[in-house]
Amino acid sequence: MSILISILITFLVIILVLYLVRMLPIAGRAKQIINIIVIIIGILYLLRALVPGLGM
After folding, report:
1. DSSP state letter for 55
2. Directed axis angle between helix 2-23 and helix 28-50, to 10°?
3. Residue 22 and residue 35: Cα distance in Å, rounded?
4. Is the pLDDT of residue 56 over 70?
5. What does the alpha-carbon distance between residue 56 and residue 49 come to, in Å, rounded to a whole number?
6. What is the pLDDT of residues 28-54, one digit of tens each?
7. For an engineered disulfide with 56, which of 2, 12, 24, 48 has Cβ 3.0 to 4.6 Å away?
8. What is the rounded distance in angstroms from the CA atom of residue 9 to the CA atom of residue 16?
9. How many Cα atoms sit within 13 Å of 43 on the Cβ side?
10. Measured between alpha carbons, how far is residue 21 from residues 2, 8, 24, 47 in Å?
11. CB neighbours of 10 closer than 8 A, spacing ≥ 6?
């Protein structure tokens, strides 16, 4: 159950950060780069939650 809660919280944080990045008054290219970085970090955290043996 703890893994499920961790995954849900991570997913919600990713969605919130992506929404906040969309609201920033910066150029489109910079937004794309920030979105990619946020998604990659989110995937890494989801993998950490799903595979606790990775030692991250």
Report:
1. -
2. 180
3. 9
4. no
5. 10
6. 899 999 999 999 998 888 888 778 665
7. 48
8. 11
9. 6
10. 29, 20, 5, 23
11. 42, 45, 46, 49
| Spatial separation of the C-alpha atoms in residues 9 and 32, rounded to whole Å | 23
Structure tokens at 16: 């919130």
How far is it, in rounded angstroms, from Cα 56 to Cα 53? 8
Which residue's entry shows tokens 């991570």? 10
Written as six digits, the tokens of 43 are 């995937």
- Whose CA is closest to 2, among 55, 52, 54? 52
What is the predicted pLDDT for the residue at 55?
A: 53
